[in-house]
Amino acid sequence: MRPFAIYLFAAALLLTVGCNRPTSGVLSPESESAMELKTFAKKSVNRQEVFIKGKNGGWFRQTTQQKADGTLYLKDGAGKTFVRAEYEDGGYLMPEWFGARGDGETDDYPAFERAITAACETGASFVTQRKKYSLSRRIEFPSCFQEGMVWTGNGAELNNTVYVKSPGTTIRDVSVVKSPAEGFVWYRGQGGHFENLTAKGCQSAGFRLGGEKGSQVAWSTFVNLKAINNQDGLVLDGSFPKCWVNANTFTGIYSRLNSRYGVHLKGKANYNTWMGLHCEGNSRKNKDLPAMLIENSSENTFMGGQQVTHPGNPSPVVVDRGRLNNYFGGRYVADKAAGRIIQQSKSKIEGANLVPRKSKQKPKDK
């Protein structure tokens, strides 16, 4: 075959493949046919065919049920029925179904707001992907997003505050990086479970519980929280009217290199249990502050595997102005110039390893 003929054959083959390739498109809301779905990018999600609209997002899923409630159903040439994802009851919802891009530049806040509202209406769980979502405002999980409902982050990274007003929910595997305010805030949180959350480089506290009139966070479990390079690490603030942060459990907490306190309890932040707290290199911009400050909070217990260090800082590791707080075990390392390592008058220290040490090494950022 001559070279020119080979060139024509290759060009024709590429053109044929290109014509058969699915492309993105925009589905007309008033359309009564799903023929346009054939031009959409197609993939398999949970063993279902999912058609993704163009750059504006919006997913359609195959369904076998139809409701006489005005919902728009579409049929393709093979007789399959499709429905907009936001009308599916139960299961899960994703912000991508409502237009989120997760490219770190597009404002995904409107899509998050619509997806969370739909989750409240349908009882669906909320799922994000391992992407960078840019948010122009904080996102709120309202009271309707409550017991039994789950946000599975899958390593999602956000750049604005996650504000929780819903009791009994579960949130896991989410990071907030460089928020203009807090990383995570709990206004309500009774009976919730929060796991594998990271707040890094936030302008205020990495994690704040309470801190507002009427805020109540109790009987919740917090596991594997990381607060790094924020203004404060973890703040439990029960100092406002009708506000308390009581009887929560904290396990595997990592608070490091925050500008002020690694852990700060104040007001009615009582009866909380801490296990495996790792607190290092905090108060790095405020040498007169301790790593941990407890103000008027009572009967908190710090036990098992504590590692609280304060190298190169003349302040005590812990300043406890509460009462009946308990320090069982753990290792507390302070600069020799600090004098008392744990400064307290009405609390109990038992089995804790108090180490005065002059350290020339500065903790490295991670």
UniProtKB/TrEMBL annotation:
InterPro entries: Pectin_lyas_fold (IPR012334), Pectin_lyase_fold/virulence (IPR011050). PROSITE patterns: PROKAR_LIPOPROTEIN. This is Pectate lyase superfamily protein. It comes from Neolewinella agarilytica.
